[in-house]
Amino acid sequence: MAEQQLGLIADVGGTNIRLELVDMASGERRELRKYLCANYPTIVDAIKQYLSDAGQPAVTHGCIAIACPTNDDWIAMTNHSWAFSVKETQAALGWTALHLINDYTAISMSLPHLKAGQKVQIGGGEVKDGAPIAVFGPGTGLGVAHLANHAGFWMSLPGEGGHVDFAPIDEVDEHILAFLSKKYDHVSVEQLLSGPGIVQMYQAIADMKGEEAKFTDAADISTAGIDGTCPVASATMVQFCKVMGSFGGNLSLTLGTFGGVYIAGGIVPRFIDYLKQSDFRERFEAKGRFRGFNEKVPVFVVTEPQPGLVGAAAYLMQTV
Fold first, then answer.
1. Record-annotated residues binding ATP (predicted)?
2. Residue 12 known to bind ligand
């Protein structure tokens, strides 16, 4: 492979598109830029603007991580107006190859490449090289994926794990389930482990304690809960960490993730020290006869600000 062969990687959300160049020989990334999607009629327009701003580099390959299904040639964004054909986009850009992957596929692909400064470990356990990995990310929703290694190649196993049934463990969990069951026919884990989920947990615990639910914003609840200025918010954050632990432990058991369980998303990196002191790890390991199994599995919070770009680069280099 020629040393100068360049790839373009992008991470596209409903608001912004982040783009970067990657040297496909060395893996070196450079020229990170961010653009508002709304400022460009099509994704091709945004990419061409980036290439112009970056000095018209000779790109041959591309990998775009995008927050929508990527199973077909036609890509239609869930939270933005961009819709396009992968083949037509590749032709318009004149590239040798263009790959579209789901945003959580990209995040999962980043995990084996994260260094110590890009993640923080929660509790014990050691990574077993090449072993399966799990990732989940409380944010607007709850993204979930697994990663498996075959003959030195990493394969992302995406799914809809955030929509599995919520399984209560203690009395507080049981009250939350009963409270949310009045609202939903099916109470998924995402209804608790997400920004909206924090609000719903807070409302359920306020109901349990006979208190008024004063907050309506997840950030306000987490702030008041962690600094101890609101007892209901504090109880909410205690329970949020417990539910995360139970759910993460379930992911570990499902695929034997001795490569680690990773927590991504925009919520948890804001309170890593609090998470370390919480009951997260106890719930993660509290699996009866299989406590010893999960005790060996390490857990990390992803602190890398651009895991989607790291993963898109990893995906692209692996396919060339």
1. 10-15
2. yes
According to DSSP, the residues that pair with 4 across neighbouring strands are: none
* Domains of the chain and CATH, by start: 6-109+306-319 (3.30.420.40), 115-303 (3.40.367.20)
Distance, CA of 100 to CA of 255 (rounded, Å): 26
C-beta neighbour count of 64 within 10 angstroms? 26
Backbone angle region of 260, left / alpha / beta, with phi > 0 → left and psi within -120 to 50 → alpha: left
Q: How many whole angstroms separate alpha carbon 236 and alpha carbon 224?
A: 10
Give pTM, 2 decimals: 0.90
User: Backbone phi, then psi, for 182, in 5-degree steps?
Assistant: -75, -20
Cα–Cα nearest to 46, from 59, 35, 58: 35
Q: Identity (one letter) of the amino acid at 237? A: M
- Tell me which H or E stretch contains 242: helix 231-255
User: Any known ligand binding at 11?
Assistant: yes
| pLDDT tens digits for range 95-106 | 999 999 998 899
Asked whether residue 10 is marked as a ligand-binding residue, the answer is: yes
CA distance 162 to 82: 25
Smallest Cα–Cα separation from 136: which of 276, 277, 250, 217?
A: 250
14 annotated as belonging to a binding site for a ligand: yes
pLDDT tens for each residue of 203-261: 999 999 999 999 999 999 999 999 999 999 999 999 999 999 999 999 999 999 999 99
Residue 55: count other Cβ atoms within 10 Å of its Cβ. 8
